[in-house]
């Protein structure tokens, strides 16, 4: 991928820089529940401010349809200041006279969060007039929000066409990691894909079988593939109407010389609750009154052995119902194997909300080469789709 970064931006002292960040963090009672996205913004914001730029942070928050005081970015700006360890101002609008006056009063090195972009309908519509109003506030544009790059909105795509555009440090790290994972990976490449529905990740599966050497399927999706092969999965979550599609994925994988790995032992229970009585069975012995809630230890050992032969790993989705013990064991075990192999040179890239939560639960998120906080953008990248925000920067993701 070819795109300009902060290394290409030159002297920023006194220049107004619009930074598209993702401050759409979980909030409860005015308190940030997970500050990982805020921490991800620190390198770019700090570098620009230290260089004397006037840093103007743009972000959406929630899904308002017009002004909604409950979705103001004001409390997020306070939380960002704590994470940055330096003052962060707040501007009560992101365009117009109020924003223009506030920006005019700022000095080199100052940082401010502008109010929720989605208070204006022009943001999601990528309205040229709204783009022009945003651009009026700045001289340079830095996109540091891969998680919104799949949206062709004013702040994620439009601005890149009217101001000199650069990728921020987090965006650059993400794009480089993704390029190493699927763009120009070192083979053999393995992909772990979990989750509940084949239908929601069909495009991902169809793309991956053309890109990877080993496709490891877990979660309830595995049940659909097993059922398609004539295996009785009992009362397990399963998309029986996707059987033909699952068989098509397997056929395409075979044609592309991609080995699909399905479990041959699983953990079953008759209740879906923490601590439920469970046992490990061969997939051909799943009781009619039970449901599959995790992969078995033999399946995990086999997947671990395959990973030991690989140079690159892409991971999206848990292997079982990891939120409920003891059905987190397979995800935790394979994640720890992957982290150990990463320490020995495996390039491991993971992403998606459940995936990040699962890796944090396993205590190995820091042990992967790169863990993306992006949800929809990461999924669309795995589907092989062009992301408008990246295309606008000059990249091809």
Strand content range: 15-25%
Give me the secondary-structure category.
Answer: alpha/beta
Strand order of the largest sheet: 5-6-4-1-7-8
Mean pLDDT rating: 94
**What is the highest CATH level, the class of the largest domain?**
Alpha Beta
Largest sheet: 6 strands, parallel
Computed Rg: 23 Å
Q: What's the end-to-end separation, in Å?
A: 7 Å
What's the count of strands?
Answer: 17
Individual helix count: 15
Low-confidence stretches: none
Q: Approximately how much helix is present in the residues? A: 25-40%
Structure in words:
By secondary structure, the chain is α/β, with parallel strands linked by helices. It folds into 2 domains: 6-168, Phosphoglycerate kinase, N-terminal domain (Rossmann fold, 3-Layer(aba) Sandwich), CATH 3.40.50; 177-382, Rossmann fold, CATH 3.40.50. Helix content is 37%, strand content 17%. It is built from 15 helices and 17 strands. It has helices at 36-50, 74-84, 96-104, 122-125, 128-135, 154-158, 169-183, 202-208, 219-228, 243-255, 297-307, 329-343, 353-362, 376-382, 388-393; strands at residues 16-20, 27-28, 31-32, 54-58, 89-91, 111-114, 140-143, 165-167, 189-193, 214-217, 259-261, 265-269, 278-282, 291-295, 312-316, 347-351, 370-372. The chain has a 6-stranded parallel β-sheet with strand order 5-6-4-1-7-8, sandwiched between helices. α13 (353-362) links the parallel β16 and β17 (370-372). α1 (36-50) packs across α2 (74-84) and α9 crosses α10 (243-255). It is elongated, with a radius of gyration of 23 Å. The termini are close together.
